[in-house]
Amino acid sequence: MLETSPPDIFDCQTCGACCAYSADWPRFSLESDEEIARIPDKFIAADLSGMKFEGGRCAALTGEVGKHVGCAVYADRPLVCRTCMPGDEECRMARAEFGFSTEALPDPDRFL
Ligand code: SF4
Ligand code: SF4
Q: pLDDT tens for residues 47-64?
């Protein structure tokens, strides 16, 4: 998820689908112990593999998917959350799962 303020490119805060797609998505990868330590324990999975996923969504996702959402750990979110960009393959998969339009999404390369 990408928070943009103001939402000059695409406002992920009206979506959140990628944060509520699969428990396998918000996994830790190359994060250092120090980076993971900045995320409150209540948001981390019991097996420490990534973010806790409960009720069909990342525990750090706030708000209502498809209306208005936020990430409670945005500044410290996992790498995978930083690399998922509006318009990329994962974004399109997640939005399609929720029945959200994938037509007006930006070219993800513009974020590189
Ligand atoms: S699914 Fe795409 S548009 Fe929705 S929050 Fe994730 S990156 Fe943003
Ligand atoms: S940590 Fe934040 S950006 Fe990553 S899946 Fe959870 S709510 Fe979404």
A: 999 999 999 999 999 999
